[in-house]
Amino acid sequence: MRELTVKDAINEALVQAMEADPDVILMGEDIAGGAGRDDHPGALDAWGGPFGVTKGLATRFGRERVMDTTIAEAGFFGAAVGAAMTGLRPVVELMYVDFAGVAYDQMLNQAAKVRYMFGGKQKVPMVMRTVVGAGFRAGAEHSQTLYSLFTHVPGLKTVAPSSAADAKGLLLTAIQDDDPVVFFEHKRLYMEKEHVDEAPVPIPFGVAKVVREGRDLTIIAVQRAVQFSLAAAHTLAEEGIDVEIIDPRTYSPLDERAILTSVAKTGHVLIVDESYPRCSLATDIAALIADEGFDSLKAPVKRLTAPHTPVPFSPPLEDAYLPLAPKIVAAVRAQLGAGAAIGTRRG
Amino acid sequence: MSTARTIPPAPNGAAAGETPPPDALLAMYTTMLTMRRFDERVRDLSAAKAIPGYAHTYFGSEAIAAGVMAALRPDDWIASTYRCHGHAIAKGVALEAMAGELYGRTTGTAKGKGGSMHVSDFDVGMLGAFGIVAAGIPIALGAALTAMRKGTGQVAVAFFGDGAVHQGVFHEGAGLAMLWNAPVVLLCENNQYAEATAIEYHLNTSTIADMACAYAMPAERADGMDVVSAYAAARRAVERARTGGGPTLLELVSYRFSGQYEGDAQGYQPPEEIARWRERDPITTFERLAPERGISTEALARVADEVDRAVDAAFAAAERAPFPEPDDLFDDVYVSYP
User: Which of A54, B47, B222, B330 could cross-link to B233 by cystine, CB 3.0-4.6 Å?
Assistant: First the structure.
């Protein structure tokens, strides 16, 4: 069976979307690399973005459709909104989600609101691809996740795939979607491999995936937290604890039914997320369960997140920052009354 | 503490360029007078609290929108600001739909979802009015990008005020527009006030047109109080864009007779300054020059009659139109949402 990395699955989705629709264009900083340089053979497609995700696309589709921009996120994000409003389907790359601040007005106030504030007569079919996640020793300004900054905003859709097949299928859906979509790519998952169908098969938004079935406790996680949870589930299984792992895959829309169905089955919930805890997706999902699933609960809803600190640089600190498998194991045991509780903050 | 910068005198009178024929001029006058009468109603209704929310009137800059839009094709795009009434009227947005929007009624351009700051009408090339200063600049650039990619020959014009030239997106947009040689006109409506700050106290260069040199962009500064001057300058910029010559920064100098918003006491604008600029009011200037441009006073009077009737009818219809239902709140957030 053919296996692809997450990185190559995203590249394949872009190729297939661009082949299917000439209105799909890409914009971003060094998404080709080498800009307009043609005086030596390695210049075109030298980069493909800092992680090489878009490598080869400029050679294949030309610089008219794979546009290296200046380092001006607000400028080219705004241009993408205008291009989307008038008939193109731009896929723009925000090199790291940490740079959201410099292009946030275009997402918050224009992309998200054009349809509503102009009375439903316009649409903004654009995709913002961006890179998230700690674990690269990249420090406070290149390691955040920030899912909630975008999920908070009505008008935006948010997608956070945790595997190669999901990344491809969800990106195909994002590009075909008529609303603005924020597509989070976790930098520590880019090299993860699995079988990916060669045919372009879109995966619908708002449909969670049951990553592992289990009867004792529900873990809700996306992206790298799914990996941590799977490792924890393996350890817990040896102790006879059987956890279920739900990956919502899209945060807006959110598959509330899948979450509540699993909670109704297990009666115990742990939400695992490497984002900051305050006003986060973990908080949001906990509130959903409190509102709609309270009667199913045999114990309080628990969250295991990063602490409310910036992402640190030093390796031992960054490792301590993440909700790694041992913490999940301890949290599950505590939830089920089988061990000591572990907190997400000091003391 | 900042000290006042000396700004060169505002251009006065039409620069070189042919004067349009009388019927075209009369159409521009109609457009200008419609804006003036429309916003007079907005001013009064806003003071009477009959119109909810903020209102930003266009008094003093009527020649700019009328002149620029006369230089555009109907399918050309514009992106506008919260001071959008004049741009929308000149681009051809129906008065009744505009008045309906200001009243928050279902007959409005956005079915009452947008309000005075967010008038739009795709069908006449009005991409929309954005409430964040300078936000429309990269959006117009994006529309120009679509025109390039699809080979439609359309031009996009971004309207913005003098205060907007300090925003990052003005500079980012200017750089990208040159990089892409995009068919876009950066149209600075220099009404000499950035909210409550006079231009002498916020501009770093002598003129706004000077800022184009950082981007090697063609630029022009022209009189924005005379519609013929505004039209002629806009035509040069639009033709440059349409024929592959790329972007232009066009600074049209006018004066904001009103405050930043309706209800603003204008304490920062010296009365004698307002009085001095009143002498160059674009509408009375047009009326004074009409005979020598081949337009009779009878023709002007006929236009005034038509405009009054059209504005009356628009506001009367808007007042009668229904408000949205509470359930309409949920419509149009997304095209589709499972």
Answer: B222
